[in-house]
Amino acid sequence: MNTEENPPQGAGNRRNERLALMALAGMALVWGYNWVVMKKVLAHVGPFDFSALRTLLGAAALLVVLKALRRPMLIRAWPRVVLLGVLQTGVFSALIQIALLQGGAGKTSILVYTMPFWVIPLAWAAFGERIRGLQWLALALAAAGLLLILEPWHRHAGIASEALALAAGLCWALATLVAKWIKRDYPMDALPLTAWQMLFGALALCLAAWVVPERPIEPVSYFYGALAYNALLATALAWFLWLFALQHLSAGMAGLSSLGVPVVGVLAGWLELGEVPGGLELAGMILIGVALAVISLRPMGGRK
């Protein structure tokens, strides 16, 4: 038998794992740099207008991918999916864009990625999931990091932006619980669920953009490039890479690798926008990063 034409199953698995890690690295680069893109494009468009356009195009891109892959597009539990879309795509995207008006791309990305720490107590309240072991350590590290970033003992202009970024993380956490609620009672494929919830969230954002008066859109090349980046790369490609990685890696390993997103966001904001964090701020970011790593490590070695 020709082993080159029929590689051993173990070799195929190792190859898929390498490809999955490469996919996660690509996803982290695309999503991480998008924080800079979303920040810079606000010089040419209002936050609601851009949120509505990017999510609408992103949903359309995902629906095209579904059609091209000939994947089932029908889903159930429409009221819950609509709620998921309003939270995860609608309110979440709007809060991010408004936070970026005054806040730095790197700091905003770190604060939004506090989502897992909101999920822990919310899951305790909603589903009775007890807080155990390393989760307490992660929560303590995250709380200390937040204190260093927010510096509540000082009044500063960025506090409103930071509060909005934290609210976006909380909204993401609530959406995570809704997604878990859907999965518990109506198991469905992740890709069509993502596409439909994004479409419903985009429609909610379109309504908000119609109601809230904003500056006219400047039809410059960066505006169109940012839309294309969000629809094609940050939505269609990045979600495909994420789902591919989840098929070939453990959830814990994938979650740990996704920490590259805020890291890329901080570095990109530092290099491209000159967002140099102060000493306490940098220490707080590091503490939150360590806390995220701790909470991601638990499912890798713990019992399922």
From TrEMBL:
<feature type="transmembrane region" description="Helical">
    <location>
        <begin position="81"/>
        <end position="104"/>
    </location>
</feature>
<feature type="domain" description="EamA">
    <location>
        <begin position="163"/>
        <end position="296"/>
    </location>
</feature>
<dbReference type="GO" id="GO:0016020">
    <property type="term" value="C:membrane"/>
</dbReference>
<feature type="domain" description="EamA">
    <location>
        <begin position="20"/>
        <end position="150"/>
    </location>
</feature>
<keyword id="KW-1133">Transmembrane helix</keyword>
<keyword id="KW-0812">Transmembrane</keyword>
<dbReference type="InterPro" id="IPR000620">
    <property type="entry name" value="EamA_dom"/>
</dbReference>
<feature type="transmembrane region" description="Helical">
    <location>
        <begin position="19"/>
        <end position="38"/>
    </location>
</feature>
<feature type="transmembrane region" description="Helical">
    <location>
        <begin position="50"/>
        <end position="69"/>
    </location>
</feature>
<keyword id="KW-0472">Membrane</keyword>
<comment type="similarity">
    <text>Belongs to the EamA transporter family.</text>
</comment>
<feature type="transmembrane region" description="Helical">
    <location>
        <begin position="251"/>
        <end position="270"/>
    </location>
</feature>
<feature type="transmembrane region" description="Helical">
    <location>
        <begin position="134"/>
        <end position="153"/>
    </location>
</feature>
<protein>
    <submittedName>
        <fullName>EamA family transporter</fullName>
    </submittedName>
</protein>
<feature type="transmembrane region" description="Helical">
    <location>
        <begin position="222"/>
        <end position="244"/>
    </location>
</feature>
<feature type="transmembrane region" description="Helical">
    <location>
        <begin position="159"/>
        <end position="178"/>
    </location>
</feature>
<dbReference type="InterPro" id="IPR050638">
    <property type="entry name" value="AA-Vitamin_Transporters"/>
</dbReference>
<feature type="transmembrane region" description="Helical">
    <location>
        <begin position="110"/>
        <end position="127"/>
    </location>
</feature>
<dbReference type="Pfam" id="PF00892">
    <property type="entry name" value="EamA"/>
</dbReference>
<feature type="transmembrane region" description="Helical">
    <location>
        <begin position="190"/>
        <end position="210"/>
    </location>
</feature>
<dbReference type="InterPro" id="IPR037185">
    <property type="entry name" value="EmrE-like"/>
</dbReference>
<feature type="transmembrane region" description="Helical">
    <location>
        <begin position="282"/>
        <end position="301"/>
    </location>
</feature>
